[in-house]
Amino acid sequence: MAPPTPNHLRLFNERLETVDRPDEEVSGSVTDLCQAFERATGWSLRYVPGGPPSTDHDLLWSAPVDPGVGGSPGHLRIDLGGAELGESGPRVDLDLAGELAASVAQLLSELHTGREELRKREAELATGVPVIERDGDARPHLAERLEAVLRGGAEAVGCHAAAVYLLDSATTELKLRAAWGLPRERLTLAPRPLRTANADLEALAGHAVVMKNRAVRAEWSAPEAAAAAVCVPISSPTIPLGTLWLFSARERDFDDREVNLIEMVAGRLAGDLEREVLMREGLQAATLKRQLNEAERLQEIQLPRATPLSDCWDVDAWTIRGDRLGGDFYDWFPHGDGGLSVAVGSASGHGVVAAMLAGVLRTAVRAHADAAREPNQLLDAANGALWQAAAGLQSASLFYALLDATGRIRLATAGDVTALLARPAAWQLLSRPALPLSRDPGTHYQPCLHQLKPEEALVVLTAGELGTGEGHPLDPATVARLVGDHMASSAQALAAELRARLTPAQAAAMQHDRTLLVVKRRRPS
Fold first, then answer.
1. Which of these, 352, 461, 381, lies nearest to 417 by C-alpha position?
2. Given phi > 0 = left and psi -120 to 50 = alpha, else beta, which region is 111?
3. How far apart are CA 412 and CA 434, in angstroms?
4. Which residues on neighbouring strands pair with residue 518, listed in sequence order?
5. Number of C-beta neighbours around residue 1 at 10 A
6. Which is nearest to 463 in space by CA: 417, 429, 412, 510?
7. Which has the closest alpha carbon to 147: 110, 200, 194, 184?
């Protein structure tokens, strides 16, 4: 004699093709609306699924009700007969009744369209994919694919409905994101709190939960009033995503084979969700790459390309970035009668953040150059601008100098930027220790004055890992000696020689930006 089947919960340790969705259900509100139409007009208005019949002698009027792409269209129709005279009062003119019925059909179409969009958006929110559909993508929408898997799994084990409930980012609630066999209105319901979803908690712990009758289903807080149900986890290799529910209209048991099949369906759903996430990340990566290319090109074109047309000054510079976007820049522009303004800046950080701060700093230099009579005044103004932009979270170094036709240089420095004076067999450090910009809005920077002779050169270096100690290719002492030994060369030749000191391997290994600027005074003709 076979042992009796226990009437209690069973736990199983954890170890599909595209199909149409079921026809839209006629909700009670539609039936009530048709009955109200009949009472008001005397004509019987009915909603029928599917297209209009090709031959129907009883049909007087019809209008389509389209629930959206991929749905099964229905029709509103007025037939011969219906309410008899004296039962609901005299009928109004059929044309007038038809106009009213057409308005009803339009409202129902808009309702179905809204449900269709809600269904798609719930599926998209399951993975955070863009809500704008991609042009040229011939694949079914994610909602279509999820529902096809749900239907295939439900029909394979004899269930009438299936649903996917996914966890929110805080892992406190479960929201219905996709369903087959359930009314669309279910997608508008509020999320279920995870702490009271007993079966979901058990499933997320790694077990499939089988509820074979209504008594067991009620004890485990099933989300639908089905006679029997199964709940299994949906998870990626690293994190739980949510739960898959299958509902049966009759009380029944589920054997091991059916439970294993349901778990396979859950794995298929997890795979579809993960693929959509990867596709979204790929699209985002392509967009980010394009934006980085544009930002990199913008940074390059903002650097001066030609030496200034000056009879007094010979200037050249270069920048090597440790990343595609960086925080270093150099700039020069004329001022006054034969004068020249020169700037070298370096924002802290890497990548996009450094590039944004460098853009703010360069703009501040240009904006305050006319009003600032002395370099230290410009640094004070730039310090205030960066403090407002970065609120002390980021800092920057800056060298700024005013050169005039007599050879006089007025300069000021902030942060970790080195300005030195090179001459044959000797060199002199001009920059002074000072706080970087954006550290303290009350900082005031000190000016420095020097008369540059034709046999001298001004060299400015931003800090970098290859310039922090004696003997490196671009440490200040090495740079000063090389410039002093080649003082007869032009600024362009000196900058090129210093750039050549960095081998391709050294330049590729740099993690920080590096900028060098050389200024020489032209000999009077």
1. 461
2. alpha
3. 10
4. 316, 459
5. 3
6. 417
7. 184
Residue ranges of domains in the chain: 28-120, 142-281, 303-521
Spatial distance between the Cα atoms of 273 and 280, rounded to a whole number of angstroms: 11
Q: Which ranges of 303-336 would DSSP assign to H, the alpha helix?
A: none
Q: What is the pTM of this model?
A: 0.54
Q: What percent of the chain has a predicted confidence (pLDDT) above 70?
A: 78
- With H, G, I as helix, E, B as strand and everything else as coil, classify residue 37: helix
The architecture CATH gives domain 303-521: 4-Layer Sandwich (3.60)
- CA nearest 282: which of 75, 130, 509? 130
- pLDDT tens digit string along 412-430? 999 989 999 998 888 999 9
The gap from C-alpha 515 to its chain's centroid, in whole angstroms, comes to: 33
Tell me the C-alpha to C-alpha distance, in Å, between residue 365 and each of 295, 329, 333, 351, 375. 20, 12, 11, 21, 10
CB-side exposure of 88: number of CA atoms within 13 Å? 16
State the Cα–Cα distance between residues 52 and 29, nearest whole angstrom: 22
Q: Quick check: 427 and 484 in contact, CB under 8 A?
A: yes
Whether pLDDT at 245 is above 80: yes
* Per-residue pLDDT tens over the stretch 125-161: 555 543 334 444 445 677 888 899 999 999 999 999 9
Q: How many CB atoms lie within 10 A of CB 507?
A: 15
CB-CB contact of 376 with 446 (8 Å): yes
pLDDT band at 516 (very low <50, low <70, confident <90, very high): very high
Question: Which of 425, 420, 493 has its CA nearest to residue 452?
Answer: 420
Q: Using CA atoms, how far apart are residues 265 and 224, in angstroms rounded to an integer?
A: 20
pLDDT, tens only, 34-46: 888 888 888 888 8
The per-residue pLDDT for range 325-350, each reduced to its tens digit, is 888 999 998 877 778 899 999 998 88
The DSSP line for 98-132 is HHHHHHHHHHHHHHHHHHHHHHHHHHHHTTT--SS
Tokens at 256, concatenated = 């091991």
- What would the two tokens of residue 341 be? 């303004």
How many Cβ atoms from other residues are within 10 Å of residue 211's Cβ? 27
Three-state SS sequence of 393-407 = CCCEEEEEEEECCCC
Q: What angle do CA 300, 305, 311 make, to 5 degrees?
A: 155
CATH class as words, domain 142-281:
alpha beta
